[in-house]
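Title: Prediction job returns without error message
Component: structure pipeline
Severity: low
Priority: P3
Assignee: unassigned

Description:
Job completed but the reporter wants confirmation the result is attached to the right record. Sequence as submitted:
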Amino acid sequence: MLKSLHIENLTVFPKADFKFGKNLNIIIGENGLGKTHLLKAIYSGIASSADAYFNQLKSPADRPEFEIQSKFSGVFRADSLTNLIHRKKNDKEHHLNHPLELKYKFDQQDLDFSFLIKVPPMYGPNFAGSVATGFQRPGKYLGLRPVFLPTRELLSIYPGFVSLYETTHLAFEETWRDTAILLGAPLIRKVGETTEKELLDPLEKAMGGRLELDEAGRFYLNGPIGKVEIHLLAEGLRKLATLARLIANGTLRENGYLIWDEPESNLNPKLVKLIARAILELSSQGIQVFIATHSLFLMRELFILQQTEFTKLDTRCFGLQDNSDGVEVRQGPSIDDVGQIAALDEDLLQSERYMDIP
């Protein structure tokens, strides 16, 4: 479990300390305040530790500092990692003296690590390289890969995507490739009666069938009317199918990580309710979940379910607030602790305006 993340000078964040819940973490904020950047920072750290673990199995070479620089570069798709360093408004050279620093702390102390990205002092503000200094090596690496679900579904572009990504320069984030690899993992032989099956059944019922992958690398939904190509399904159903596949092939299992950017996108309220329940079910089974959202409906549904059925989950909410120097963070166990979020207020104000119409 990731216990905390300390950030200094990452994109919109001048300085922030995040103390995460064991089960569910909800990041709330308006557009442009760094919700996705925070998810990517969480994912990059966890994934780089996993990459170091699996690469270590293949080769005795031990270069974790390379793993994390490589992962940040691929996930953020910045021309230079120094471009990720926070820059104050109207101060073009602030980042020259203020390195980007991240510190990851886990429930197992020997997994902890930190690193810096800084602009060498002999170069100017347009320096295009990057230097990692002060790297604190972990005692060991994570042996389980995290899952990052972007706002867009990936099943419809899956055929040939991984091989194309590996051989061609594509302007897609590395999270897409990573998730596509996980989607292609074979199904587990027997779905557990009380874990995966309980999660799969409502998803497959909503989709109207079971997701299948043929030998040519194409996904289909196999239902009462036969096989339907995945790209012919509504995008919302494809998002459900993505989650179902990762459950069915065992990728999402106990002691894992799920990082999901706007789970509610392209879903109607009925399906958002289903996704909310799936998120809490996964959280309750040992998966640490991080989601970013500005959907009042999703947050209310999560709150209702937590108050009535999932009462023992350790949950943290993070509100991203704009200020003169960048983004500050307010956090606590409930949405009441995150301060005023304009995106949520607009939903409430519209409801009041609607009710006032005679």
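Comment from assignee: result matches the submitted record. The two ends are 52 Å apart (CA to CA).
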